Amino acid sequence: MTEHLPKFRAACLTAAIYLLATLAVPAHGLAAQQTGAFPDAATVENIAAQGYVYGLPTVMHYAITYEYSVDTTSPQYKAPFNHLLNGARVFTYKDTVVITPNSDTPYSFACLDLRAEPVVISVPPVTDGRYFSVQLVDANTYNFGYIGSRTTGNNGGSYMVAAPEWQGTAPAGMRVFRSSTQYALALFRTQLFNSADINNVIKFQTGYAVQTLSAYLGQTPPPALPMPAFPNIGQDFVKPKFFDYLAFALQFAPAAPEEKAIRAQLASIGVVAGKHFDFAALPKDCQEAVLRGLKKGEAMIDASINGPGIRVNGWKMSSPFGNREYFNGNWLKRAGGAKAGIYGNDAEEAVYPMTRALADGTPLDSSKHKYRVTIPAGQYPPAKAFWSVTMYDGKTQLLIKNPIDRYLINSPMLPDMKKNADGSLTILIQRDSPGKKYKSNWLPAPDGPIFLVMRLYWPETQGMSVLPLGKGTWQPPRVELND
Predict the structure, then answer these.
(1) Which of 3, 218, 366, 393 could tie 445 with a disulfide, CB 3.0–4.6 Å?
(2) Domain covering 105-215 assigned CATH 3.40.50.1370 in the classification
(3) Where are the alpha helices (H) located in 260-350, listed in sequence order?
(4) How many C-alpha atoms does 149 have within 13 Å on its Cβ side?
């Protein structure tokens, strides 16, 4: 994911606990506050905690949407809604909107406004065995569909993305993906075989297209809907505005049955979609309770991320990403996935072993130690597309600036790497260069805590496999001291 505003870092999420103090409130909610008809402080604290857990992914997504398609002055701006931007490069340390970014594949981006009519996404046929995927993510951070090598094949085609309330008729034979929200995001990943392959990627990307249904059909478009007054989340993020952002976003996300309870709880303290909430209007004891609740909610999410989970050789075998049915109202799982790396793929599309520590739990810190990871011969990560090991700063979960502009070791690099006498491969993880002889095997590390993430795109399900998580026949190799 694990991804903003404009630098949405994990550290900024600490500040977010204070921003969560401003949810929308209707006229009757404000009146209730002013007349004292308000839950007791203990109840308010619990609702704020649960509201933070429930709302964090939605606010993170809104922040990215704001940077990508609203704020044209942002260095992270991509394109207007329903327009495609093809990125002819991989992510580097300069990309700071999404935490834990993938630096394996050039991306194409399209923020989708589905309110007036559906959008049609077209992809070209694959002729060179190149892996690609189009991940469809709604504003709830649910992965509601995939177009690509694994799911729809390599013959190319056009596919429709529609809002939850759309009632029209799709063109004959066209598959429809239904978003649970009126705004969504399409993330295109295109495999890059090596640095010399970039021109081929660029050529392939020219076959991608995003257009409204009326444009696709050559018809007169429906009446345009006015653009909402998007709150400037980038400038206001350090103020008590988080619940304002959440309330704004929720008006475009109809409540599913499993959401009604949490939304009712939020409404009891004045948090209602599309309405402004005046934190200052809360009774003093309730203001304090909200702030305590936000801290509690953040702690709950952090505990879920750093908890034991399924661990193999020190790696947490985690893939907390999926569709609405996958989460089934588990807001803590959804928030943990978003904070660890927003927009992660379903396990069937990609698996993400990750670690911050040795197998014995000792934190990884390259200001103190050197490390190595040795992959035995014939036991490379089982992926039909490709695999990688990416280095992140342990504090920010962002890629790190380094002297050789290398952010990962991946399977396309294998021919240029040195193998051991027994055929195994050792990846050297350290801050300083190991010297010219072993430069090909060096994964530069930060001057401090380390966060390592493996990626297995299109993981194998037969033979040597990483699925099901923690029970597959393949296990990630240990990170070991190499001092």
Answers:
(1) 366
(2) no
(3) 260-267, 284-306, 324-327, 331-341
(4) 21
